[in-house]
Structure formats: structure tokens, C-alpha cells
Amino acid sequence: MKLYCLSGHPTLPCNVLKFKSTTIMLDCGLDMTSTLNFLPLPLVQSPRLSNLPGWSLKDGNVFLDKELKECSGHVFVDSVPEFCLPETELIDLSTVDVILISNYHCMMALPYITEHTGFTGTVYATEPTVQIGRLLMEELVNFIERVPKAQSASVWKNKDVQRLLPSPLKDAVEVSTWRRCYSLQEVNSALSKIQLVGYSQKIELFGAVQVTPLSSGYALGSSNWIIQSHYEKVSYVSGSSLLTTHPQPMDQASLKNSDVLVLTGLTQIPTANPDGMVGEFFSSLALTVRNGGNVLVPCYPSGVIYDLLECLYQYIDSAGLSSIPFYFISPVANSSLEFSQIFAEWLCHNKQAKVYLPEPPFPHAELIQTNKLKHYPSIHGDFSNDFRQPCVVFTGHPSLRFGDVVHFMELWGKSSLNTVIFTEPDFSYLEALAPYQPLAMKCIYCPIDTRLNFIQVSKLLKEVQPLHVVCPEQYTQPPPAQAHRMDLMIDCQPPPMSYRRAEVLALPFKRRYEKIEIMPELADSLVPMEIKPGISLATVSAVLHTKDNKHVLQPPPRPAPPAGGKKRKRVNDDIPDCKVLKPLLSGSIPVEQFVQTLEKHGFSDIKVEDTSKGHIVLLQEAETLIQIEEDSTHIICDNDEMLRVRLRDLVLKFLQKF
Amino acid sequence: MDPECSRLLPALCAALADPGQPVADDTCLEKLLDWFKSVTEAGSSLQLLRDSPCLVELLLQVPQAPGLSPRVLAFALRLAGLLAAQEACFQFLQGELLSGLFGEAGPLGGAAWMAPTVRSGWIQGLRSLAQHPRALPFLAELGALDTVVALQGDSSLFVASAAGQLLAHILGLALGGPAEGPPGPPACDWPASAQAVVGHLEEALSAATAPRATQALHVLTTTFGHCHRPWTQGLWARLSPLVARLLEKDPVPAAHPLVDLLLSVARSPALSSDRGWWEMAARALGSLRPAHAGPLALGLLTLQDCPQALSAQAFAVLLQPLACVLKAAAQAPAPPGWPAGPEGDAAAVATLLSSRSACVGLLCQTLAHLELLQPLPQRPAPWPQAPLLGAVLTVLRFCNGSAVPAPGSDLGGHLCAVLAGCARVQRAALGLLGALYEDAGPPELVTQVFAVLLDYLRSPDSSPTVLKKAFQAALQWLLSAPTPPGGCAPDPPAQPFLGELLPVLQRRLCSPCWEVRDSSLEFLTQLAGHWAGQAGFRHALLASEVPELAWQLLQDPESYVRASAVTAVGQLASRGLHATPAGPECPGGPQKGVLPELLGVLAADPEGFPRRAAMQVFARWLRDGHAEAADAERFVARVLQAAGRDLDWEVRAQGLELGRAFLERALGRPGPPCPDAAAAPEPAAPAAQALRAACRVGLPEFALRALFDCDRPVARAACALLLLLRDQAAPGLSLPEAGPAVAALEAALQRWRAGEQAQPPGPLEPEAVLAVLRSLDLEGLRGALAESSDHVERNPQSLLQDMLATAGLRGDNEADCY
Questions:
Q1: Which residue among A195, A633, B16, B554 is buried most deeply as judged by most CB within 10 Å?
Q2: Which residues of chain B have a CB within 8 Å of the CB of A323?
Q3: CB of B412 within 8 Å of any CB in chain A?
Q4: Alpha-carbon distance B723 to B783, whole Å?
């Protein structure tokens, strides 16, 4: 059993598990932090961005000044943003049989895998994962395609050139494999390969293993996966949450008794408590708005935004914010808000109960109804007519490199009355803000990450007690910025096995058993004999038939009638030779009784010696040794076959035959 | 006993002794016992029995009556004990009756014994009975001691505890002697019953099982706690070796009651001079686990006369957990001034600290103990203020993840993991930090205190309760910060802290969590109260949005927050720090004054708390001579008008308080004026003027209506106010003739008395008021109102009638059924 690690990002995993002749890809997350090296794509012509000076080498060489621009001491690539794909060289991805998706954030690289690697398998995911994943992909494609950029920079990627660049460009990994965003057509084609599954549904893969998605409590439709055969169980935990937010709670019990537990997708901000951050978010929001400032919340179109809108619903009146407009701008804003209301079966109990009243499960429906929350596909069109300040705007993309958020950063960045509040933990807010410097706008960092923290993980591991834990190497040591926090790492026994990008792990357990079925008529013919209380044995002569990884013992074919001579013998009709087998022996020889029997049969002068492994019975007169050990008996007599056979028969009297 | 009760008692006794009659509930029986207790305390029990032979009858019948309720049985046992407490009565009852109740013939051997109530009644009966030496032979005759000893292990905690107390009582009765003097006879000459009890105690203390030792320790703790007679020295001398033997075991069994015993001995004036005891205490400090050694150490340190060496040892034990924390963070030897503890203890503490629950428990206990110890005069000297501050700050840093453990310290790593985000320890540490403000400390540490407090106030992860503690601690440290003589700004490091504090406060006032908004407002109120005089603070506060946010919170959906906002706005206004009251809803709109706004709260807020807060603000304004109350008559008139019909009795009562303040002011007896009062109190006015002023603001009308308020505290306050008005404001006025105004007022009073909400007959004339005041029996009313509302129901006659009625009910029903 091997695990091929194609992504080094702990929350955007992409691993391939080879298990019992199946090749299973676990998630295919797309690392978008590479886009932070690029200049933002403004929706409206930005003189500031277009007039940034080109970057030149220390020696004054300006051959890169078209590709690289400098802004407040940072260098950015002036090109269409590119993404860092999972490793494609480590394993032939066309051999992947299935892809299991855990949540919509962990499927963003799917089109790259399914469309360009010769992949012919099936992708399994829950319905909300697919639908919201589609929204995220469509939004991404839309953000990038609607700002066409003629230029595509490639010179800087040259290894010799890259060495000369300042950090972080100099340290960017595998830039040659960075790819531009996929197209909508590729998205549709990739999503068409997905087969929908429900929680706890058992899916047979080639008869070899069974995979089952379990609720993981992190997002709508998010799952952990159980991959098991009859005797082995691998759990894949990715992006789980124990907090009471909108999704169905996490199913922990089913993870018990795993041989291996692959643990990914823990919180990226282990020191921040989501509740405290929500409080901070609203305090900052209220303060800004009260001062007449605007609030910008860069966010994904689904996920935490539902919870934020729900809190907003409760808080809006008490904070005196009822007259402040809230805008949600995304090409998929409408679909996201609508979808959230129709996936009742995937929601937590309280929200499910509302559906029976009937009421919409999320209160943002009421916010929309009362015109407190308005949503628009983009800043163009209706929005520009309705736009009123001060206001609060939720929009993407959290990287601040593309999407409507770029426009608001340019628009509001110069005033210290305004605030940008970062709630998504995927991007470093300082790096995200770098191309907007100098910035007068206030910045608040309230990352809300509801995924498991290390205390919860340690409780989880104590409860489910896997034999081995496998996790990204980042989880086996405290975060570099808090090296003293020994509590911010996975602590379990035995210590977890860690992986890093492009590494292949041999998982530490071997297959030892295989389940074999016995056909009823064959079972009927067996005559078990009890050799110890509770243990019976029977010999079986059968044909082992293996197909689709299922093994069946069938009765041996009857001896064929003597060949007619004329009929041509077909290969399939080959009958295995069934030799007449010697009976099998079992039992142990009680030495004292054996000696008495020998004496009865006329042997005298018998000596018994104890050895470390058993006994030696010495027939001094006959110059013969009988070695009796736990699993063997030897009769050693010189060339007296008669004597040997006599002694053998005496030995056999004490053993059972079958 | 009054004749009516004597008449009712036989019937009640008959009803009680009848198993077929329903029994009144426990409360009635308890009340009945209370009554009998007061009767026997007031006179002779024997006489009571002679006057009411039905009682003897009842006590005789009870053991014979099968199927009697356990409650009645327990009642009879307790009554018998109560009556037999007097020696004469004991002799009267002794013989068949008492042994029938308390002996084998009574419930002791029967099925009724299964009921804990009966066992409890039996013990309490004996406890009451055992008041005179004659009781001891009786108890011995009954063989009661063995039963009591066995009952110490009873499944009912009440029974077990009462059994222990009875044993201690028997011992005290048996050994009773002079309050002072020589230790009394040697142990071998003690009376048999004392010998028997002590024998039991010795046996239990030597027993291998902790529960038995615990029982004995409880008895001894009670004995030494309640009795300080000389014989206790002999008892301690005899039993202390056995107690010392308990301390030799590892782990020490029954550690908790052992600590209680040691402290009880320490507090006993008869024993505390025993040198051996101090040695034992020192040994106990060394052998008990930290969780038990801590309470012992605190107990020792609170003693007035603890020897210096023991006190030092106890303090070192108390500080040991914090020493470990410091070591885990610094890997250095203990800081200067820190009492050195034995190394072995440190290892035990370190082990304890490394498990989560033990660590949190031990640290919280230690921090709480130090908080208790800090203000005491007998606290150890020199008090290690600086290292203690350092330790508390380290704990707080571990709790917010900012502490860096010493390199290679396993404990440091564990503490990081265990304490990070632990609100319990955070609260305890902030509590101690707040208490440590009095002694301040070196400036660099004070700077650190403010830095850590700011971290906690800023952190989004601080829970509301932690934040409240942080606010309290910050306030205490701010209040203790020295201010230069010029009085314009506090010294560093408080000054930069104040500067950083306001943006934090601003954010907290916008918190979605109402508890946070509430405690922020409370903090603001107190801060403004103290710092309003400092120009720097005034400037910073007025430049911030804090006053405006406080103003906006008057509209908060949570009533507690609105109440705190009212108090805060009132405080800010009285200090000239209130916001320009133009909310975001109407920017540039007409400014609204504080008084109309708060009157609006009083008139319209649907919850009581904000209205009460508004009344408190008004009363304070009036007493302090605040500008809003400069025109006192108009101000009081408006407030009383708004408060008059309030549904909340506290608001009405505070209205009367306000009226009283006004009256006193009018009479020239104002309270202490506020230092920056806007208006000087009015000059003393003659009594007649005061009455007229009171009439102009509608005070008599308000008070007269309140006199018949359905809530007694309001009526009492009104009565007191009217008495003041009558006696002070109009002592010299002659009684006017009854005119139409008086008649109308009396008519209104009649209606109010009947509970009707009638309007008053227009503005009252002073003369009419005076006439009514004279005609009212205010003193009588005051007496009636001083009685508790259930004084009628509480008299024994009513109790007996009620109980009889309960019993009779059954009979009526039976008749109906028939």
C-alpha cells in the first residue's frame, strides 16, 4: 500500500492511494497562492497599476521590465495569473481509477487532472460539493476571462533568470509547471465525469475495495472517506469541523478501527478561535460603518459567508446597522444564495427542522426580502445604479488578484475611513495587499477557519484510535512563527508519518488476509473434525476461482469421462490434477503413555531425555532415537526399515488423521 | 401557650397519631417544632406536658401505631428530644416513653428505620435530648453509641453528618468542664461514655480504610471547632499520634478532612499553643499532595500567631505551583524574593501541572488562595510583590499563547498546551492581578502588567467573563497609578495604556456579544468617574467615539446593556464628557439633551433595568447638584411624573428616594456636593417653603399614592418620607380646617387604599397635605408595614388551624364519597 503525495499544501491536498490493485486519488486541490506573485486584474482601467515601473536588474538590465513590475518594493509578474498544479510526474495519472472529492475547495484542480492526463476513471463527490464546486470554478473562470490580458509572461520562469529575481519570485517552486486557468468547457467536461454519492453510501470499486463518504461537518456536502476491504480500513479525513455551523455534523464514530488514518485539512489558523473572530469581524464592521466608512470583505461565494450573513441577521438591528446596505457581488452570488437554501438534507439538524415549518433554512432569505442584502453578478449593470455608501461589500476573490474586489480596493484604498476585513484564511493578507501599497484603508485580519484544531484532533484521535496516522509534514511540528507552541502539532502514539510534495510513502501495514467464499455445495461436503474445543478442521479440495478481486472456492470438477478422442480439447476444460492426498495429522504425543506403549510392544531399556524443543526417546537396545518435538517427530534408526515402520505406526496411534 | 392553641392541640395530636389521616407537609411539621422549641425555651417543658397531656399521649402512641408516616415518626422523635432537653421533663418522660421511642422497641428495629427521615429524626432527637449529664447513662443504657457510630457511614449524607455531630456532642457533654483551667482529668479517668467515643475514634483512625478515618476526622473537626474547653488538650494529646500516623502514609488517606482537622485545631485557643501541633502541621505541609497542601498552607497563613518558620514553609508551599510555572518559562533559579521550597515538592508539583485537569485545578486554587491572602494584615512579610507579579503575568502569557517556554523544559511545552485559551485560569490570574494593584511594583513590571492587560482586552479570543475580569484588573491598576500633583495626566506607564485603551473600548462597545458591551460600559462608567478630572483623559475621551457609542447603546436591544448605557451616559454627562447626541440616523439633526433622552428611557423603556438605572442617575444628579438638575423643582417634577405610574416597584421606590433627596435639599440638608458641581445647593429654606416646594413638584401626591402601594418596600419608603415631611417640613403649622381640598384628597386616599388607580384631585395645597398628614396614623402604618407580610400566617394558631384543616379535608372528602 502506497501513498503518492502530489500536493504539499496541507489544506489543498492531492494524494494518490494504491490499495489492493486500485489507484485512488484523494482530492485534487489547487494551490492558488501562486497568483499572489501576479499583478491584480482590474475590472476598470487603473492608471495606478498600468503606470507601475518595470523592474530592472541591479546592473540596470531591463529585459524583464515588460514582464515584471515594481510596486512599493515588491515585484509582480504582469501577466494572466497562473496556478501551481499538483505534481503530475510522480505517477501516471491515466492509471488513476477513481477520484474521491471531500469538499468543494478541494476539487479546484479537477479539470487539469481529468482533461489533460488521459484520466478515464470516475470522480465521486456529493451533490452540494459538485454544485458549489461548479460555482467556484465558474466564478474563477469568469473573473479571469472577463479581463483578457494579451501578455503572457514566460521569460522570468527561465531557471537562470528566476535565480536573479528578488524574493518571493526567486523562491517560487516549480514555476515551469504553473498553468493558466482552465476554460468553462474544460470545467463542464470535468464535472461530467463526476458521479454523485450520498453520505454513508457504499461504493464498490472493482470488487476490491469499498469507499464510503461520511459527513465531515465543514461545508455543505463535505465528506471524509472510508476506503476499506474485508480486512483493511483506511480513513481519509480532509476538512472537518466539530463546530456547530450550517453543515451536518461530523460523523466520527465511523472512523473508528482504522489501520491508517490520512489526516489533512486542519485549521490554517490554529491560534484563532472562530467565535472570537466573528466578534472581531462585527466590531470592526460596526465601527467603520458608524464612522461613515465602507467595509470590504474579500470572500469566496460560498462557505463561511453563509454563517457571516446569519450572524449579521442577528446583529444588524442591535448594532444600529439596519439602514446600511450589504452587497454581495459575484457572478454566482444568486446561485450560491439559492443553492444554500435547497440542500436541506445536507444541513445541520436545526436548519433541516426549519424546512418542515416551512421556512428557508438560512435567514439570508429574509435579508434579501427586506432589501438589506442585495446581490449582483458584477459591479457593472444594476449595481452601479443601486450603489450607496457607506456600505458593506462581500466579494471575491480573496487573493485580491482578480474579481470585483480589485475594483473596490482601488476605489476605497485611499481613505482611512474604509476597512478591508479578511475572513478567508487561504491567503496571507499582507501578501494579498502588497500590490495596493501604499494603502490608507484600515486592514483587519479576522480569519475564520472552522476546521479542526489540534486540541480537537487529539481528542478525535484518542476516540477513533487509528493504528497509524499519516499527515502533511506541517502538522508534525509547531508553526515556524510559534516554534514554542508544542501544542500546535499532532501528538499521537505511534508518532504520525509525515509526507511532503512529491514524496511516496509506503504505508506501514501489510495485507495479511483475503476473504474467500466457499460455494454452498462445497461447504456442504466438508466434514469438520474438532481438534480442540471450539476449533474444527476439515480438508478442502476445491478450485480457487478469482474474478473482479473476489475469490470463490468451487467444488472440483468431476473427473472427466475418458476423452472421446474426437472432440478437441479446449484450454478452459483443463482439469487440475487432483492427487490422492496423504491424510493430515494433528495432535500431540503424550510421552509417558508413548513409553508405556513401547514397553507393551516389547521395547525395553527406554530412556527419555528432555530437550529444549521437546523430548528424545532413546531405545538403547535397538540403537534408535525418537525425537518428539512440537511440530515434528523423527525416528532415527540405522537401516532398519521394519523397525522404523513399527515405531511409526505406534507414533501414529497417538495422532488424529483427517 | 395561648388558650386557642391549647384548645386546638389535642385534635392535632390525635390527627398526627392516626395513620389514616393525611399528614401535613414537612414545612408544617418543621414550623410546629420551631413553635414547640420557642415554647420550651420560654418556660418549663414539664409544665407544657402537664397542660397538654395530649402530647404525652402522642409520644406514647407513635411507636405503637403501625403504618404511621415516617415524617410523623421523625417529628415525634425530635419533639421528644426537645422536651427531654430539660432535666425535669427528661425524668418525667424517662422510662417507658423515651426508651419506647429511642430504644429497640421504637423505630430502630422496625421497617420505619429504612426511611432516612426517621434515622435523621432519631439522631436529632437524641442530639436535643443530650443536654444534661443524666442523658449519658440513658444513651449508654440504650446502647445508642454503637448505632450512632454505624450511622456515620449511612447512605444519606444528612444522616451521616448528623451522626458525626452527635458523637462530637456526646463527647463534649461527657467531658464538659470549666471553660478555662487545667486540662482536666487524665484520659484514663474519663467517663465511660467519653471513653467509648474516643475508643471508636481511635479505632477509626487506625483503620486501613479512608472512609472510616474520614468519619473520625469529621467528628474531631467538629469537636475542636466548637469546643475550646481544657479537656480538648487531653483529647488531642491522646489522638494526635494516630493523626500523625495518617500523615506518614503515602498517599495520605482522607487528606481533605485531615486538613480541615489540622486547621480546626490551629484555630482552637485551647490547642494552638501546643508545640507538637506546629510540628505536625509542618510535617503535613511536606507530606500532603499539592492540591491538599495548598488549602492547609492558606489556613496556616491566615492564622494570627503562626510561627515564622512554619509561615515561611506554608508560603513556599502555596507559591510552589507558580514557582514551577516561572521555572518552565525562564529555566532560571527562583527570582529574588521568592521563598525557596523543597525540591521534592517542586517535582510533585511539576508532575501535577503536566496533566490538564490537575494543572488547571491547582493553578486556579493557588491563584485564588493568593488573592485571598493578599489583603490580609497577617500575610507574610516581606510580601514578594515583584516575583508574584512576574508569575501571574507568566501564567497569563501561557494562557494566551505568548509565553515562550524555557528551552528544553518539558513542563513549559505542557503548560503551553494545557493553558492556551483556558478561561478558568485566565479568570483566576486576572483576579489575582487585580488584587495585586495595591503594592504596585517596579516600573518595568507595571509596564508589563498594562501590556498584558491590553493584550487580553484586545484579543478576540478573550471570553466575555475573562474580559470582564481584565476590565476590573485594568481599572484597579489605573486607579492605583500615581498622578502628578498638577493632576493633568497619570504617570507612565498608565498614560500610554489609557491612550491604547480607548480604541479597544470603542471596538468592545461594538461587540456582537451583549455581555462584552455591558462590561465595557460598566468599565467606562468607572473610568470616567475616576479620571474625569484629568485633562489628558478628557481630551482623549472626547476625541474618541466612545461617548457617542455609549449614547447609541441607549438603543441596544439587550435591556442590561441599555441599563449600563444609561448609567454610563449619566456619569459622562455629570462629568461634562457626554457625546454630541446626534446619532447616525439623523446626522446634523437637532441635538437632543441627555435629560430628555433619559426621561424618554424612564417613560418608554419596556424593561425595568434601564428605568431603574435612569432613576439612579437622576438621584445622583440631584445629590451632586448636576447642571441638568440645576432647576431642581422642574427636574424633580418631571422625573416624579414619569416615575409615578411605573410598573416596576424599584423605580417607584427610587422615585421616593429622589423625593427624599429633594426634600432634604429644600430643608437645607443637602448631601455632599460633587467637586465639579455645576450648581451650588440652594440656601436653606424655612420649613414652610420646603413644604410648598414639595407640593409644587407633586411630591406629597406621589408619596401618598405610594403609601398604599401593593409593594411593601414602596409603602414603607413612602411612609418614612411622609413622616419626614410631617415632622420636618411643617412642625410649626397649625392644623387647618378641613376644606373642600382636604375632602377631595381624603376621597382620593380612600380610593387608593382600595387599590383603585384614581387620579389625584389636582395640585395639592400645602394646607390640605398637612391636614391629611395629621389625620393619617403614619406611625401606626409604619408599624404595620414593618411586620413581614406573612406575620398573620406565621402565628402558631394559624399553623395549627392549617394543619387541622389538612387533616380534616380527608374526612370531608370521605363523607362526600360516601
A1: B16
A2: 584-585
A3: yes
A4: 13
